[in-house]
Specification:
alpha/beta, Transcription Regulator spoIIAA, STAS_dom_sf, Anti-sigma_ant, 139 residues, Anti-sigma factor antagonist, STAS_dom, 24% strand
């Protein structure tokens, strides 16, 4: 963490399957975690909300216990609705915190580096070789 906290930027989109995705960029700390928590709570809306949620954390530069708490709260809310939280691309401090605390097993963890090594595309994307095959191998 730097001397000056990096602001938190959130962007919410909806995947092709209707699953909301919140992209998180910056530091997830005691000063910014409430913003993420509020955004994730808003996804539920007045009804039951979506069952599954994707949180793209690949651009999180720092995470403390407050950030972890916001992610765990999202897990509890989606679990009550019968869904799951997918964490996309956790790196650095966040990845270590998830592993050391043992809570990584509560989430679906997508690692784009693993997908690239396996020749697979990240969830929701079609690998290029599949498009070639669908087109009869013609470019």
């Amino acid at each position: 963490m730097s001397g000056h906290p990096e602001p938190l930027h959130l962007d919410t989109t909806t995947g092709a399957d209707g699953t909301p995705c919140v992209s998180v960029r910056g530091e997830l700390s005691h000063t910014t975690a409430p913003v993420l928590d509020e955004q994730l709570r808003a996804l539920a809306g007045p009804g039951t909300g979506p069952a599954d949620v994707v949180i793209d954390v690949s651009a999180v530069t720092f995470c403390d216990s407050s950030g972890l708490s916001a992610l765990l709260a999202a897990h509890r809310r989606t679990r009550r609705r019968g869904g799951s939280v997918t964490l996309r691309g956790p790196r650095g401090t966040l990845r270590r915190i998830l592993r050391l605390t043992g809570v990584d097993v509560l989430f679906v963890v997508e690692d784009p580096d693993d997908a690239a090594r396996d020749g697979a595309a990240p969830a929701g994307e079609v690998p290029p070789h599949a498009l070639d095959a669908a087109a009869g191998g013609q470019a």
